[in-house]
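Incident review: delayed structure delivery

Summary: a single-chain prediction request sat in the queue longer than the usual turnaround. Root cause was a stuck worker, restarted by the on-call engineer. No data loss occurred. The affected request and its eventual output are reproduced below so the record is complete for anyone auditing the incident later.

Affected input:
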Amino acid sequence: MLRSKFWQAFFAIGPIAMVVLGLIGYFIFLFMLIGNIDQLEHGSENFPEGWILGNLGIIILFVLVAVLVSFGSLIYYIVHAAYNPNLKQNNLLLVWILLFIFANGLGQLIYWIMEVVGKRDQEGT
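Output delivered after worker restart:
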């Protein structure tokens, strides 16, 4: 599983894609809510109150999935870096792990580009 190109790309791009999609969904919900503010203020009977809670539930579910993908990405790339033979001879392993922890999502993307895709291209030539 550590050498699978699909999982490497998924766990590198997944957390950032989830944040972007989450923000887009949140702003769509917010603009739809602002667009219907007159109906909410005047208690119009043709505006269902369950719409707000239903969409809020979808957003909360999406956030939980994003947290799971981000945590899975963190674990996957820490294990990947620990088994990377290029990082054994110096302190780069510690630097990468700290980057994964403190720059979660972005650190995995940088590692994937530099250590996985970059080394794969060098091995192919």
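Verification: DSSP finds five helices and no strands in the chain.
Action items: add queue-age alerting; document worker restart procedure.
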